[in-house]
Write a structure and sequence with these properties.
Elements lengths: L6 H15 L10 H4 L7 E6 L4 E5 L5 E2 L4 H13 L20 H5 L10 H12 L4 H16 L5 E2 L1 H10 L1 H12 L7 H12 L1 E3 L1 H7 L1 H4 L10 H14 L5 H8 L3 E3 L4 E6 L3 E6 L10 H14 L6
Antiparallel strand pairs: 1-2, 1-8, 3-5, 4-5, 6-7, 7-8
Bound molecules: glutamic acid.
Length: 307
């Protein structure tokens, strides 16, 4: 029996352990709709290279993917415009909060990477490229739906409206970027699109399936070139958990991207794509229990990009 045959039991035991311990972290409260989510929830889904999808916990409950959407927006921009994005956004970890404005001034409006908010706003600006926000959003949604092989993936308009009403830091970032001429569209248009992309909802099952193309699994639809897939994974590893990226890489040895809705997309190149969700966050704004689950999964399977 291979270790992976024990995976269903392992995941069920993990979910049971997490639920019985009841230590959840704190849900994001700067977006009122997210503040209402019950933190005592956990789900994990693993899509394996042999086509199996194994889950435990509330793997059919939809949650707000928030910053995980930045990975898909980046994939769409790279497919559509190639490497020109890198003239406007860097590829270095920031070591600062996800919504920090500090480095932006020092570095003249060129965000450190596409996964901090400032970099994601520029990425969304590039994706808009004179089109209606609806078109750019359809492109991101279609990428996700094609990746998951599931059209039942949508935007929760109430979450987008909730963030629009209170997202003052993002408003500041967008205006600041525009002052450096690093937004072509109006801040309003970019922000409206960005809030909606962040408000995409998925279950962990859908998240795991949609990530198969990023993990390069054999049954994944060909949505990305090999080179792009590897580069996106490298950015997830170095920048995917904001100023907690080093800690996440140390604990899991795997590329991942978090969102303040409590989701984590974990890719295990050639082996698996994993969706994890638990809404309570740690001090860096990453899922507290989700990070622990990723670490325990990596230890159980022996998965690591470091061999
Ligand atoms: N929409 C959120 C924001 O911009 C995303 C942040 C996150 O998920 O880390 O604040």
């Amino acid at each position: 029996m291979t270790r992976l045959d024990d995976l269903p039991d392992f995941l069920n035991a993990l979910a049971a352990d997490v639920m019985s311990r009841g230590e959840w972290g704190k849900v994001a409260d700067y977006i009122p709709e997210l503040a209402r989510v019950d933190p005592a929830q956990f789900a994990i889904s693993v899509a394996l290279a042999d086509g199996r999808l194994i889950s435990a916990g509330q793997s059919r409950t939809r949650f707000s993917i928030q910053s995980i959407s930045k990975v898909y927006a980046l994939a769409c921009v790279l497919s559509r415009f190639g490497d020109s994005l890198w003239n406007r956004v860097g590829r270095e970890p920031s070591g600062d909060r996800f919504d920090s404005i500090l480095l932006l001034e020092q570095e003249h409006g060129r965000p450190r990477n596409p996964f901090i908010n400032a970099g994601a706003l520029v990425t969304t600006d590039v994706l808009l490229a004179g089109r209606a926000p609806k078109e750019a959003l359809s492109e991101i949604l279609q990428f996700i739906r094609d990746g998951a092989g599931d059209d039942d993936i949508h935007i929760d308009a109430s979450v987008a409206a909730s963030e629009k009403a209170t997202g003052f830091r993002n408003v500041a970032l967008a205006n600041y970027l525009r002052s450096f001429d690093n937004l072509r569209e109006t801040p309003d248009r970019v922000l409206g699109t960005y809030f909606h992309q962040c408000a995409i909802e998925m279950t962990t099952e859908q998240l795991a399936l949609s990530g198969r193309c990023l993990a390069g699994l054999p049954d994944a639809p060909m949505l990305l070139s090999e080179v792009r897939r590897r580069r996106i994974a490298a950015l997830m590893m170095t920048c995917g958990h904001y100023d907690g990226s080093g800690d996440f890489a140390f604990r899991t040895g795997l590329p991942g991207k978090s969102g303040v809705g409590g989701g984590i997309l974990l890719v295990v190149p050639g082996r698996a794509s994993v969706g994890i969700w638990s809404p309570g966050l740690n001090a860096w704004g990453n899922s507290m229990v989700g990070t622990e689950a990723a670490e325990r999964l990596a230890r159980f399977t022996g998965w690591s990009v470091f061999g």
